[in-house]
Amino acid sequence: MDHKQYAVAAIVEIARVERDEKSAGPVGAKSLSVRLGLAPRGLELQFQILRSAGILKSVRGPFGGYALGKPAKSLTVHAIYTALKQAQDDEIPEADLPEVAAVFATFQHAANAAETYLSRVTIADLLEKVPVQKAAA
Prior knowledge:
Elements: H1 3-20, H2 29-36, H3 40-52, E1 56-59, E2 65-68, H4 77-87, H5 98-118, H6 123-127
Antiparallel strand pairs: 1-2
Helix pairs in contact: 1-3, 1-4, 2-3
């Protein structure tokens, strides 16, 4: 999985905690990174971008962490990808050879089809595939 996919997985986990552990409050980036097997710093950098985009909201302090910035039903995977992609410098290089141009055009077409599909998938849709987990007593 690439960093965007891990960010989506982390957001699904935040939504799961909000669904299953109603009194849990915000979810810490450290606990998310441990659960997903990621470096905490990398996840924090992605979350800063997503917070700026309004996808996540952050709470400071000893019980701080991250929560969804929008309802899971209105938050699409495409919105997350777009926010993270805009933060990168993903320019397509100029292609001098027709063979290279054909390959770039093919992958761009595939990316456009993926974006269309991801714009219809919400975090709530993904959350439906995650079993309910009882909060530890």
